[in-house]
Amino acid sequence: MTQAGQLSIGGVLIDAAAIQRRVDELAVEIDAAYPVLEQPLVLICVLKGSILFTADLARALSVPIELEFVACRSYGDATSSSGTVELVKDVSMSLKDRDVLMVEDIIDTGLTTSFLRKHLATHHPRSLRLVSLLDKRSHRMREVQIDFRGFDIPDHFVVGYGLDLAQRHRNLRAVHIVDVS
Does 108 participate in catalysis according to the annotation? Predict the structure, then answer.
């Protein structure tokens, strides 16, 4: 496993303007998928990586929303998943009979997202869909249905726009490749 001290931030994979354009496009797709809502759509932000994407998406949506948060841990400070997913923070509101949209920063192995989707289903939502900014299929260990996809990306560890390495680099406006040595 590569640790944070053995890397450098490389080039831009997806620039800030492209991210914003795609977030706006995703909002249009999501608005169209929820033409009639009995209650506001619940956006579940998967902390911490999805916070910036969730905030931008929430502002771009026209449908009424409520925000909720969950947190899992699977990477620690490394550049590869530990393979074990731990729920650190669960939802604090009832999801029963609600339309729920889980907001992910990246789908990599699929382990965390699969775990969360199964967990959220136990809350008995009316519907449960997934939007992910990034989809990196090269490491997929568990298939995940992504209802709204931002970008397919190649096999690189990336940081920026909420994604981190050892809690650093989340504040970068673009998505950058990490050069691992």
Answer: yes
